[in-house]
Design a protein that fits this description.
The protein is of the alpha+beta class. It has two domains: 192 residues, FAD/NAD(P)-binding domain; 163 residues, D-Amino Acid Oxidase, Chain A, domain 2 (2-Layer Sandwich), CATH 3.30.9. The strands form three sheets. Strands 5, 6, 12, 13, 14, 15, 16, 17 and 20 form a nine-stranded mixed beta sheet that branches. Strands 1, 2, 8, 9, 10, 11, 18 and 19 form an eight-stranded mixed beta sheet that branches. Helix 7 packs antiparallel against helix 8. The longest helix is centred in the C-terminal third of the chain and has 29 residues. Bound molecules: flavin-adenine dinucleotide.
């Protein structure tokens, strides 16, 4: 097949962030292409093991593009959050009511988010969904990009957006440096049934081996994200279901009683990294293509949605003002707005990981005292909550 197509904006990566960006550009008057290698998995009755904690800011973005209605039925609300250190008495409790809200966030399957977002793009006349598609080469010249696909198609664009995740091909083609630093950990994810109800609460404990979260799903089950050192992960995955659940109950201090496995188990490598350059002439990076963080506070995708919202706003505003919207000087506004915020979150997550994954008795005393102190300081707690909700 040989075909030539021209777009104003070509987004490589139709994951959660790329699709959000496409939807935010629906009314821009620009022609958009979303190029995706595989596309989202089908949504089935069984809850998928990959889920995301979606904060207030992301919820507002989904509502603004009309995607929320299609996710709401599969969204597990959490009104409260309970965090504690298993090595001491330190704990902290967050309640949406403390900041005058009805919910702190929602736990939603990634496939449900992607399907809803993709469905919204189908309604838009200015968005082409190019999937499945494999890129053979990317050429970047000044303010235009040209992609050659392996089936012979050639795609041209004024702005190329890399929304293609942590191993971004767009980032590599633009020669933007990125070093992903491994935490030497992987996160085991699976779905479980618990003896006691999850009480619409997101539960997270810090064990010396790594953080363990029980996230409330819409059907009463819980989604597990258990970060462990590499060597422990292999041993945990090798256990039979019964033995694995006993380990899980124990690590979780039996907070929700007995645990029964309700899905397969899978493990994902954890690392962090950040590009220095988000934009070039005719090029921008969003989401995991620009930054990777530890999932302990469930913020990675939320940061990506804010990248998408910011980039869309910058493009729409300069396009409306008849400025060179794809030029470096216009795109810099996006970089300036997002880089500092994303850096801060990356550093905070690495700091938390170092502070809590540690057996040092002195450090344990200090962090437990810190948790108790913050729990009793309403103003500091509200600051934490505002930040986690994306309210800033
Ligand atoms: C265990 C775990 C738990 C997490 N929990 C949370 C959470 O609770 N909340 C949260 O906010 N974040 C969470 N995250 C982080 C979150 O999953 C990521 O930040 C998010 O998926 C990034 O989205 P993205 O669209 O930028 O990239 P990706 O999800 O990686 O999507 C990239 C897309 O691009 C496509 N693609 C890649 N290369 C190409 C190519 N060359 N051509 C065409 N298409 C391509 C891929 O197929 C994919 O669809 C978690 C991460 C992990 C590992």
């Amino acid at each position: 097949m040989s075909e030539h197509a021209c777009y104003d904006i070509l987004i490589v990566g139709g994951g959660m962030v790329g699709l959000t960006l496409a939807n935010l550009l629906r009314d821009s008057g620009l022609q958009i292409g979303v190029l995706e290698k595989f596309g989202p998995k089908a949504v089935t009755d069984e809850i998928d093991i990959r889920v995301s904690a979606i904060n207030r800011a992301s919820l507002n973005i989904f509502k603004s593009i009309g995607a929320w209605q299609q996710m709401a039925a599969r969204a597990g609300v959490y009104h409260e959050m309970h965090v504690w250190d298993t090595t001491g008495a330190g704990m902290i409790h967050f309640d949406a009511a403390e900041v005058g809200l009805d919910a702190l966030g929602y736990i939603i399957e990634n496939t449900v988010i992607q399907q809803a977002l993709q469905h919204c793009t189908e309604q838009a006349e200015n968005i082409d969904w190019i999937c499945p598609a494999t890129i053979k080469s990317i050429q970047l010249e000044g303010e235009s990009g040209q992609l050659h696909l392996d089936d012979g198609r050639i795609l041209q664009c004024s702005l190329l957006v890399g929304a293609d995740g942590s191993r971004s091909q767009v980032r590599a083609a633009a020669k933007i440096e990125f070093e992903r630093i491994s935490y030497g950990q992987r996160a085991i994810v699976c779905t479980v049934e618990t003896g006691q109800p999850h009480a619409a609460t997101a539960w997270q404990c810090f064990t010396p081996e790594g953080p363990l979260a029980f996230l409330p799903l819409v059907n009463g089950q819980s989604s597990i994200v258990w970060s462990l050192e590499e060597s422990r992960v292999d041993a945990m995955l090798a256990l039979d279901d019964e033995a694995f659940c006993r380990e899980l109950e124990q690590a979780f201090d039996y907070q929700l009683g007995s645990v029964k496995l309700a899905s397969v188990r899978a493990a994902f490598p954890l690392g962090h990294g950040h590009v220095d350059q988000y934009v070039q002439n005719g090029l921008a990076l969003v989401g995991d293509a620009a930054h990777n963080i530890h999932p302990l506070a469930g913020q990675g995708a939320n940061l990506g949605f804010l990248d998408a919202a910011c980039l869309a706003e910058v493009i729409v505003q300069s396009h409306k003002a008849n400025r060179q919207w794809s030029a470096l000087h216009s795109l810099r506004k996006y970089e300036r707005a997002r880089k500092g915020e994303n850096h801060l979150m990356e550093s905070a997550m690495t700091g938390f990981k170092l502070l809590f994954s540690n057996n040092d008795p002195l450090l344990s005393t200090v962090r437990n005292a810190g948790l108790v102190l913050v729990d009793q300081a309403p103003l500091i707690k509200q600051q934490f909550m505002h930040h986690a909700l994306g309210a800033d």
